[in-house]
Design a protein that fits this description.
By secondary structure, the chain is an all-alpha fold. It has a two-stranded antiparallel ribbon. α7 crosses α11 and α11 crosses α12. The longest helix has about 35 residues.
């Protein structure tokens, strides 16, 4: 090799810094394809979408409107205005079906790839583990948001088909237009997404501790159920403000005018605290973990 050729080779050789500059958008697109391309995750979305359909059909074929306090929140208002089916659907999926979906998807985020052996190859990509973990969490949030918006959208469509629609009378007695009611349904879906963000972070953290995805899924779902059980015990009222399931249903305040924000703000602050703690645990484990499979 001549001395004239050496500088050219030096200039074209990739530096460590250059090798690590893999766009996060590319990683996120890959993660989203993985999440939404799995048949199991698609089946979960179908089940979530079917729930407002079933609720709407049940109300439509029933003999009369439901009594206040029976069934999911806002159920007694569905027959009078179909737009309430969106809110009823979201209220129905939040306690169990949506946490189950989040638990399955988040518990599989790292453990599933570790079990199949793809995690080891994924870590050969020139990107830091911290960024990879954040991309995975971003994918989980996108999936949760899609799930919530899907339930709201299906509820709006089915409610429009099966029941009369029009101006909506809020819980406070104020009447708003149908378009504003649709916008409030979107806001409810966004609040539900943030409310489940803490559970998604917990599931991701649990997923970094095992190579058995079923164990991570089950642990995450049990955490969600246990938290709701503790939240229903009056003797543990001192613990309720610290449970990540607290204020999950505070989105009902969005159906009032003016909107009282106290409970929802408390819920957002609570989720921010749980997300911070859970992601810190996940980062500590994932960045120091010896990946052998």
């Amino acid at each position: 090799m001549s001395s004239a050729e050496a500088p050219a080779l030096v200039r074209t050789a990739p530096s460590p810094t250059t090798r690590r500059n893999v766009p996060s958008s590319r990683l996120l697109r890959s993660e989203l394809r993985l999440l939404f391309g799995r048949r199991r995750n698609q089946a979960l979305l179908v089940v979530l979408a079917l729930l407002p359909v079933l609720i709407g059909i049940a109300v439509r074929v029933s003999n009369g409107p439901s009594e206040p306090g029976e069934g999911p929140p806002f159920l007694e208002r569905v027959s009078g205005n179909g737009l309430f089916l969106a809110f009823t659907g979201l209220a129905a999926v939040v306690p169990f079906f949506l946490p189950l979906t989040v638990g399955v998807v988040s518990g599989d985020a790292v453990a599933g790839e570790a079990q199949t052996g793809t995690l080891r190859y994924l870590l050969t990509v020139p990107v830091s583990r911290t960024r990879l973990l954040l991309v995975k969490y971003g994918g989980l949030l996108a999936f949760v948001l899609t799930s919530a918006l899907l339930v709201a959208a299906v509820g709006l469509v089915v409610g429009w088909v099966l029941f009369p629609t029009g101006d909506v009378t809020l819980l406070s007695g104020t009447t708003i237009s149908a378009l504003e009611a649709v916008w409030r349904a979107v806001l409810v879906a966004l609040y539900v997404t943030v409310s489940l963000a803490g559970l998604a972070a917990l599931g991701l953290a649990v997923s970094t501790f095992t190579e058995v995805p079923v164990a991570a899924m089950a642990t995450t779902v049990v955490l969600a159920i246990s938290s709701q059980i503790f939240g229903a015990i009056p003797q543990l009222d001192w613990l309720h403000p610290f449970l990540f399931t607290d204020q999950w249903l505070a989105f009902g305040d969005l159906l009032r005018d003016p909107v009282p924000t106290g409970a929802m703000v408390d819920g957002l602050v609570l989720q921010a605290a749980w997300i911070t703690v859970a992601l810190a645990v996940a980062w500590s484990r994932f960045t120091t973990r010896d990946i052998t499979s």
